[in-house]
Amino acid sequence: MVKRKRRFNWKINVFLKSGVLIVFLFGLYSSASCKQTVEVSSDVAKQEMVSELEKKVLFIIAPADFRDEEYLYPREILEEEGINVSVASKSLDEACGMLGARVEPDLLLSEVEVDEYDGIVFIGGIGAKLYWNDGEALRICQEAVSEGKILAAICIAPVILAYAGVLEGVKATVWPSEKDRLVKSGAIYTGKKVEVDGKIITANGPNAASDFGNKILEILRENLE
Questions:
Q1: Rounded to the nearest 5°, which phi and psi values hold at 67?
Q2: Are 107 and 88 in contact (CB under 8 A)?
Q3: Is the same domain home to 20 and 70?
């Protein structure tokens, strides 16, 4: 009887210890699973915040000879994250890119209300020269800065920002042939592929189009934190 009792107690102890081990391991698994769930939920929530709160960006293109890549790549990058992109131009007629892209603008430059957007983006290409001294384009730049909006320009379009007087003392880049125009307007020319100074983003040409789009998205997200 004593031996049977000891053997029975030993089995109980083994069973209890095994139970404790199982509970402990289950706890570790649950904790790890919970942590992964929280991390995934956090990423999803951040993406939803970008879509819901930072969802309106305006692209400004020339009626003719805007640079296709500088328009198409950034737009695709932003729209993939659920951001609404509208297009403004000097005319509502179908705009034609230097490489053949066709775009129907949503509104005229004169109709742009800057406070309706989270970011304003000027697309380059040789047609962008049309806006260098355009009163409406310069107004949009000035209002974007005064209202704390993201203001971006690529290729030769940073000249528009320079002539609007918003690049004085600001780090910026541009298509190399237009470097002196920025410098004379008081900008700090860096020559980088993409340059960011506060909420002003500039890029130097079509080869920077994807990086330009990603940087706009990055600054939009930073403004949510």
A1: -90, 120
A2: yes
A3: no
Q: Which pLDDT tens digit goes with each residue over 99-147? A: 999 999 999 999 999 999 999 999 999 999 999 999 999 999 999 999 9
The CATH number covering residue 164 comes to: 3.40.50.880
Q: Spot the catalytic one: 34, 96, 141, 155.
A: 155
Residue 178: phi and psi, rounded to 5, are -105, 15
Q: In Å, how far are 5, 46, 53, 85, 134 from 218, measured between CA atoms?
A: 70, 12, 14, 16, 29
Name the residue range of residue 18's domain. Answer: 1-46
* 37 and 16 inside one domain: yes
Active site residue 155: yes
In degrees and rounded to multiples of 5, residue 155 shows phi and psi of 70, -120
Give me the number of domains the chain comprises: 2
User: Global pTM?
Assistant: 0.78
Amino acid at 10: W
